[in-house]
Design goal:
Largest sheet: 6 strands, mixed
CATH class of the largest domain: Alpha Beta
Number of helices: 10
Number of strands: 16
Strand order of the largest sheet: 5-4-3-2-1-6
Shape: globular
Strand content: 25-35%
Structural class: alpha+beta
CATH topology of the largest domain: D-amino Acid Aminotransferase, Chain A, domain 1
Number of domains: 3
CATH architecture of the largest domain: 2-Layer Sandwich
Helix content: 25-40%
């Protein structure tokens, strides 16, 4: 990209989910990193209003046609997506800007929708030979069969809202007495629930990105938490140790990198991704993929990029370049 002609970049942040504040932090980091490279506009997205901020001035965006009060002549060259959860990670924002012919960073609407739905994504990858945990899916309208869960999945197990991020609506369940309460709690987050067997092993997080025209696997992170699992506290309140690069054998490193790249390609992703795996004596189990991972300097993917000698500025400019091309 020729930076002599500054591009107009809209950075969308916020969203409609419990991840609003986390997303705003990511978006602010993107803004601070890129504001000297582009004409950057922060766009705060809520369900009932979108607000664009130019310096300290606020402008209302009309959602139906993306017209901006007071800035009717502003044409954005690209949208940088920093919205975790809905509507930035589930295909809605991608579809919106695809319809407006404005490039947006990351993967397209179909891939976003697929990866955000844990049940659909696991079913797709399992059909392609990727090893996953045993699971049962449950709709809100269906009756909970505790005996089936105990016989097929066993305890402990995980109950996960199918569409959620940052471990909202995710519970580790130890017995039959807890299961109905946890399922009902998860159904408050989404109308589909994944009930998944617990896999004891080491947890790894692997960033895979499109970078300068090729797919790049970043250094691997091992996640060690004193909590029951890598939940919200572990992710955002310092209750986990994130070791990058992971202290693992070359053989396991090679296997994890090949598998994470295979997942990225099978899902036909673009831009950033971070996939989670559990490893034990029975093999490598895929857990999930995040297509709009945290973007602060403390977040896992930027840590991995730093370990690969890629700065936040390089990472973000590359995402814009690849969206515009």
């Amino acid at each position: 990209m020729n930076l002599d002609r500054l591009k107009n970049i809209g950075i969308i942040m916020g969203g409609y989910s419990n991840e609003y504040e986390i997303s705003v932090k990511s978006g602010q980091v993107v803004y601070e990193t890129l504001k000297d490279c582009f004409n950057c506009y922060r766009i705060y997205v809520k369900e009932d209003e979108w607000i664009l901020k130019k310096n300290n001035d606020s402008h209302t965006i009309h959602i139906d046609d993306f017209k901006i009060d007071g800035l009717t002549d502003l044409k954005l060259d690209c949208i940088f997506n920093a919205i975790h959860g809905t509507p930035g990670e589930d295909g809605k924002m991608q579809k919106y800007f695809e319809d407006k012919n404005i490039p947006i960073t990351g993967c397209n609407s179909y891939q976003s929708e697929l990866t955000f739905d844990k049940i659909d994504c696991l079913n797709f990858l399992s059909s392609k030979g990727i090893k996953v945990a045993s699971s049962i899916s449950l709709l809100k309208s269906e009756k909970i069969n505790v005996d089936e869960i105990e016989n097929k999945i066993g305890f402990p197990c995980f109950v996960k809202a199918s569409k959620s991020g940052s471990s909202f609506g995710v519970f580790k369940v130890y017995d039959k007495e807890e299961i109905i309460h946890c399922i009902n709690s998860a159904l408050k987050v989404d109308n589909k629930v994944l009930i998944e067997s617990f896999i004891d092993g080491r947890e790894f997080s692997i960033g895979v990105i499109s970078f300068k025209g090729s797919t790049k696997v970043l250094p691997i992170t091992e996640i060690i938490t004193s909590n029951d699992f890598f939940d919200y506290e572990a992710k955002y309140e310092g209750k986990a140790e994130e070791i990058t690069p992971a202290n693992i054998t070359d053989e396991l490193k090679s296997e994890l990198k090949l598998l994470s790249k295979k997942v990225y390609n099978l899902l036909e992703l673009k831009g950033f991704s971070r996939s989670e795996f559990i490893v034990n004596d029975n093999g490598i189990y895929y857990l999930e993929t995040n297509t709009v991972p945290g973007l602060t300097s403390e977040s896992i993917l930027p840590q991995q990029a730093h370990c690969a000698n890629i700065s936040l500025k390089e990472l973000f400019i590359n995402a814009i370049n690849e969206a515009i091309i």
